[in-house]
Amino acid sequence: MFKNVISYRVPFVFIAGVFIIYQLVIREGILPALIFAILPVIGIGCAGIFHGQLAFYAFFVINYFIMGISRYFPMKTGMIMLGLTLGLLLLVFLKNIFHPYDWKRSRNFLTVIWLIWFVYCLLEIFNPTSVIQAWNIAINGYAFFPLLSAILIPILFTRYKDLKWLLILWAFLCLLAAAKGYWQRNHGFDSAELYWLLVEGGARTHFIYSGVRYFSFFSDAANYGTSMGLSMTIFGIIGFYVRPIWLKFLFWGPAVASFYGLMISGTRSAVIIPIVGLVTYLILCRNIKYMLFGICILTASLLFLTQTNIGNDNSLIRRMRTTFDKDDASMQVRVINKKKMIPLLQDKPFGIGLGLSGGRATRFNVDTPLAKLPPDSSHTATWIETGIVGLLLYFTLLLLILAKASYIAVFVVKDKKLKGILIAFIAGISGVLVAAYANDVTTYPNGILMSILYAFLFTIPYYDKEQTTDVTTT
């Protein structure tokens, strides 16, 4: 049947291609027509040598470094990442011609959930206050890449070893991020970083009364702290479940390094990530020994931060304590801003349009009070841009994802190692979603990283079947 469909389409594609080449020759000349003519050959050639996991690993690394690179070489990071995303998708489709993927794996719960959200974001084009250029930039992080991850990851990462190598790669990236933060703290900032701080205004939020906030090669300290909190939570938990012993320390090392990165970032909202992650883990693990150990760590940490003044001479510890201070000036400003937004959003149940919050609207000559108010967090930005309808839909979908994934972790997955990894992902995601109340977690690399983790929540059960089959065979 597939061959019949191809045989019918080939003549139409060929005729269309000849027509386009003819038009290019007439209007643009021989060279553009020649370039267009050889594009299919180049695409098919690339697809022939295309390796899904390696290409995704490369994409993963670019996503991790792109904000740091853009500090030295100004670029439109959003458009570049969108182009890479579309390129990855195109290569997968071309590769499918030679070696068909098992697309049935993509028909999962998460794909349906993200498809619903994608349709809602798609309809935001018709929002009366929407700007198509802003929508084009924002849609990738909002809905396109989450949906794409749900579709591609199950077919590209077909075995547990594929996930393991991705985790190892991420662990090394975390070590590099922590090392760069250490270098900034002990050896100072380079010229590009100083320009961003002193000329472009970064110093306003990074040179503060409690000390300097370090940001490694991330866009800012908040983004850095969020990423470090996420990796600390996930690798700290995974280390208890993987074997052999060298792999445990390979994950625990980056977890400790990430804790250091979290501390020097001075990002208070990120402190909540490991706390919420640990609570989530204690609920899902159902292991008495681990539960008692975790409760002791959590209780001791909270008592240390909230009931003592030990270590207050250290600026890092002192700033962490302000996370639990309800009267903190920064927190009060956020509360005041949210109160200002409520009456402005009452007649905008679908928001003001994707990509128009937090001053970004000025790029598109949009002048509204809502666009001028800083959202200060991902959830508030979603509220402003998609309205109360979009925010409630988004929260509902997220709760469904976490509930379904938690059920799978507790009752479906049997392999102890995979169960631990799945719970670690749920714990990290839960912590970031709580931190998103006070911080923007959608900036590169964290937005794409979260989408990847969501996809693995519903890919890991396939690995469990693989492990069960291997044990049965043995």
What does this protein structure show overall?
This protein is mainly α and about 475 residues long. Helix content is about 75%, strand content about 0%. It has 20 helices and two strands. Strands 1-2 form a two-stranded antiparallel sheet. A hairpin with a 2-residue loop joins β1 and β2 (about 210). α2 crosses α4 (about 75-100). It is globular and about 55 Å long. The two termini are about 40 Å apart. Mean pLDDT is about 80; it is low at about 1-10.
Quick overview of this protein structure:
The chain is mainly alpha-helical and 474 residues long.
Content-based structural category: mainly alpha
Spatial separation of the terminal alpha carbons: 38 Å
How are the strands of the largest sheet arranged?
1-2
SSE series:
HHHHHHHHHEEHHHHHHHHHHH
| Average pLDDT metric | 82
Model regions low in confidence, pLDDT < 50 over at least 5 residues: 1-10
The helix fraction, in percent, is over 70%
The dominant shape is: globular
Rounded radius of gyration (Å): 24 Å
- Overall strand count: 2
DSSP helical segment count: 20
Major sheet characteristics: 2 strands, antiparallel
In terms of DSSP E residues, the strand content is under 5%
Please give the structural blueprint.
Layout: H1 2-27, H2 30-49, H3 52-72, H4 77-98, H5 109-123, H6 132-156, H7 160-187, H8 191-198, H9 203-206, E1 207-208, E2 211-212, H10 221-238, H11 245-265, H12 268-285, H13 288-307, H14 315-321, H15 329-345, H16 369-372, H17 378-412, H18 416-435, H19 446-457, H20 460-473
Antiparallel strand pairs: 1-2
